Amino acid sequence: xxxxxxERLLNxxxxxxxxxxxxxxxxxxxxxxxDTSGNDVAFGRMFERDKNDLRAMGFEVETLTDLGWxxxxxxxxRYRIGKESSRxxxxxxxxxxxxxxxxxxxxxxxxxxxxAAQSALRKLQASGRLAEVELPAGVQPRxxxxxxxxxxxxAAMHGRHPVTFTYLAGSTGKExxxxxxxxxxxxxxxxxxxxxxDRGRNAPRHFRLSRFTSAVTTLDREQYVPPANFSIRAELxxxxxxxxxxAVVDVRQGRLLALRSxxxxxxxxxxxxxxxxxxxxxxxxxxxxxxxxxxxxxxxxDALAVEPAELAGAxxxxxxxxxxxxxxxxxxxxxxxxxxxxxxxxTSEDQLKRMLQLVxxxxxxxGLHIQDVAKHFGVTRExxxxxxxILICSGLPEGYPDDLLDIQWEDDHVFITQxxxxxxxxxxTVAEACALLTGLETLNGLPxxxxxxxxxxxxxxxxxAAGEEGLRAASIAGPQVAPADAATHATVRQAIGTGAxxxxxxxxxxxxxxxxxxxxxxxLYSLDNTWYxxxxxxxxxGLRNFRLDRVQDVRPNGRPATVxxxxxxxxxxxxxxxNDDDTTVTVQLTRQGRGLADDYYAERTAELPDGGLxxxxxxxxxxxxxxxxxxxxxxxxxxxxxxxxxxxxxxxAASLDRYAG
Length: 661
Prior knowledge:
26 strands, 35% helix, six-stranded mixed sheet, alpha+beta
């Protein structure tokens, strides 16, 4: 949308909100659109597009007719927007409820639902001031969506459009084209599942997102109706967990301590032959062959999957896909001169949505400094002033000066004296309701949630406020975020709260060794149910992140933690902290793997025609990058420096040679 279209939509909205009788199309055409072209067909299409855009923002355009007349007669048909039906009801929250809600809104680390959660939170804040609350000391649970496929499926599901994708069938091991009506998306057993109607098989089916082997294509021109009262949580509860199985893996002597720690006795296995010289034969338990195959592929020539054949084939397939991608021609690309911004589309449509949140926020927060307002909405001062300039030129069609929005920002403090009935936030969209309500559901089981019944009470209040959109939140279910090792979690959290230093025994898979170190813990955070803590490590004299499931032993060492100031980076905590001596690596990512650019905080990106991108990422240690390429099985490759690209290529060749032998 152009800026002129943004202004037109805003003026159309104000006109339809401020009429009780309704406005005819001819009146809107003359007073809002100022269209004198005489082309009725072109104007009709433009008007229908604008009505659809307003509906997408939460405003239902009502059609009124005089008694006995048809809606097909533009001369007698009138349009308006009901003031209350489009508004978010008042939601009064106490401090404990705000605390729980803030935790829920921060769960979605990035992706479309992260943006939706922040938008929903701003709508709630727009109708009143945020209570002064303190989040649990240093705790930040987060959900890690399953890449670009997650965003694509969620968008299609909310728009009720079918999708197509290529899928690796677990029963046959073959790639198949699937056409599916997506009903729900949820996480179970550490995997994201799509539940929907498989058009090719004429039956409901479930699909694991990690088995998607192509990008998701949305059939925008088609729609479907999901079954009534569908609940993804109920469907996931019926999914049986994969049986526990064992695999035989040959491992280089003295290598892969993390894998060795999981080895079990393998008396049931009668594997012909012996491991090669310099190898040890291990038996490892697993449930999902694809998950174990991803891990074993990353180990490259240090590990060889011997049995079962299904597992060996999955590892070999990943390695071959990575080798093929590494050997493909390098595409032409050009980096943007600016660093990528946070996940905002930056379109005029987003600008209009933001302005509709801005007016009620200013009504309830008169006199804020313009920089504080810009920070609240996550924009620059220049972008905010552009919003304000459009707003002060908008109002009732052909109205007097008092019929315009009146906003002033003299001395850098913003005041609004005329709001034209935009002082209440727009009702939640489906995505916003899903983001908050799914986040609240996911918090169940998180230790030491504040306020006892705050989680239940705020959920009920949001369900009532969200209405029909809230009921559709049953189409998404997040993973469990409770830590697997509650004792380690509690020890670290207590140390954060009391300011105690910890003595840590830690297994580092990249170094393949266990180290002893003293650390000053700063905060706990999670990606799904994998928990990390950020700490100042005295062994390396710098910030580091530690996975709780790799902690061999942790205990207070009797010394107070050194004060390092608040953690950098705000919310969410970052898995990686850049340093000046890091190596800048140029990585090419497919459309399926482009989410890795966000995971590793790419500094510059270049879009590719096929939906992939080239990213420049800084890495403190580069020795493990061949493992990174092998693990992602054809979704990522290194372009520069040339030495790292060659190392990854050699790693893959050596890995495939083991399977060829």
